[in-house]
Each structure stands twice: as structure tokens, then as C-alpha cells.
Specification:
Blueprint lengths: L1 H20 L15 H20 L8 H4 L15 H21 L2 H4 L15 H28 L1
Helix pairs in contact: 1-4, 1-6, 2-4, 2-6
Amino acid sequence: MREHLLRLYAASLDQARTLAADIPEQDFRRIVHGKSPAWLIGHLGVGSDFIADLCAAQGRLNDWMPLFAPDTQPAADNAAYPDRQTLLDTLAERHETAARLFREAHEEHLASELPMPEWREYFPTIADAVIYLLVHHEPYHLGQLQQWKQAAKA
């Protein structure tokens, strides 16, 4: 079952790359309808980092949290964000790490209670949160990126 989930997760990364491929650097931080490609890609990187952290306490993007964590909004200050290539490269690296750590995670660990009490109503176990992040979170935000592209053309 894990490989099925990871194939979907890999497809999301491919879709992120495809959607971002034709967005010029100068537009990557442009806010349209409350979002920017930079925020969306950075937020997905933080999500992948969270998977790594949940599976094996190997999160690395703590310095990105003020910019990209849940409930943050795109910064009006374009200089606040890393450049387009850094965002995409970091997303890819965190994806690779998250996938590897999910493959290696023991069933007992995944079945354990989510360490964040405020989220347990939705994700009682680590597995619940990880599976949500693997198959729902990215496609949702990639839909926002597609909407951004359509609105940016108008």
C-alpha cells in the first residue's frame, strides 16, 4: 500500500514542476487571489518536511515556517522568499527524503498517536496525518497554483 501512496505523491511533485515550469522568476512572487507561486511551492516544501519529521524526526525547514507554515499568508515583500529554483529544488529534496522515511517507518510508529493534540481530532495517528499530506495536501494547493496561473493571465 505504501508504494501506491508514494506513486501519487510523486505524481504531485511532477505536477508541481509542470505547473511552475513556465512561470517566470519575476512573476513567481506575484500575489493573485491571495496566493503566489512562491508561497504555494514553499508551503508544499514545508509539508514534505513535516512528513519527514513525523516519520523520523528529520524535519529541516524550521527557518521556513514563518513564511510557509499553515495559516500564513504570502508576504508582500518579495525579498522574503528564496528564489524560484531554490524553492523547487528544496521541494524536490524534501519530497525524496519524506518518501524514503515513509518507506522506512515502522508500522508501530505510524500507528502511534499524533504528537500534536490540537490536530488529533482530524488525524488521530501519525499515519493519518502522513497519508493526508501524501495524497490530499499537495493536489489541493496545486489546484490553487493552476487557478493562480489562469487568473494571472487575465
